Amino acid sequence: MNFKSLLRKVAPYVAFLFYRTLLATWKVEIHESDDLKRCLKNGSQMVYAHWHGDELGLVFLLPRYRASAIVSTSADGEIMDKVVHLLGATTSRGSSTRGGVSAIRGILRLAKDGIRPSVAIDGPKGPRHKAKPGVFEIAKLTGGEIFPLTVTCSKAWTFHKSWNKAYLPKPFARLVVVWGPALPTIPRDVDAHDPSLASRLEIAMAAAEQQARRILAGT
User: Fold this and answer.
1) pTM above the 0.85 mark?
2) Which pLDDT value is given to residue 15?
3) 61 near 177, Cβ under 8 Å?
4) C-alpha distances in Å from residue 108, one per residue of 44, 63, 138, 184
5) DSSP readout, the chain?
6) Is the CB of residue 129 less than 8 Å from the CB of residue 202?
7) Cα 15 to the chain's mean position, in Å?
8) What count of other Cβ atoms lies within 10 Å of the Cβ of residue 114?
9) 114, 133, 150, 168: which has the fewest Cβ within 10 Å?
10) Contacts from 198-201 at CB under 8 Å and sequence distance 24+?
11) What is the pLDDT of residues 89-144, one digit of tens each?
């Protein structure tokens, strides 16, 4: 085994230990909408919708909410895939919007076991904070309501060179997680590319983000 192969093998475990160490220092507040509480109580199928870039502030919640992450098939995706599994959650490999047949199949298979998909809705490559049709296709196929999911934090390292401005909360950061009210289920005959669907979800995401910021600011 050469050095590069060894590094690829070890990297996920190093990333996992570093993340878990940071997580132990964070002060996390979770605010669930009444719709979410209802669906969790009933065991309903749901689709969790979040923005690209927020993953590192949310990934630890996957096991708690019986969620599966869609992880790309890239080299970076390999690391994330292993970290998610080490955290105790599941993944579906592929893209939710481009060539995502394998990801969709994985989601449907997991949904049969009550695992809910968590989707970065502006992926895989943006534009940032613009909802793509993939999340609506997934909602149609699973029959789940879509739940806006946002997080904000008091301090973080931001990866400015990434298109999605991904960030990692710093040690002892305060994180506020907000689940917004549900968007209703989407009938099978509705076109997932309908601009009104994207507009409605973007508005719901913005409202959840504003709520999270107000809570963080103490207003």
Assistant:
1) yes
2) 94
3) yes
4) 15, 18, 8, 19
5) --HHHHHHHHHHHHHHHHHHHHHHH-EEEEE--HHHHHHHHHT--EEEEE-TT-GGGTGGGTTTTTEEEEE-SSHHHHHHHHHHHHTT-EEEES-SSSS-HHHHHHHHHHHTTTPEEEEETTTTT-STT---THHHHHHHHHTPEEEEEEEEESSEEE-TTSTT--EEEPTT-EEEEEEPPPBPP--TTS-TT-HHHHHHHHHHHHHHHHHHHHHHHT-
6) yes
7) 18
8) 10
9) 114
10) 198/130, 198/131, 198/132, 198/133, 198/136, 201/49, 201/121, 201/131, 201/135, 201/146, 201/148
11) 999 876 544 445 677 788 888 888 899 999 999 977 779 999 999 899 999 999 99
Here the tokens at position 118 are 């968590």
The single-letter code of the amino acid at 67 is A
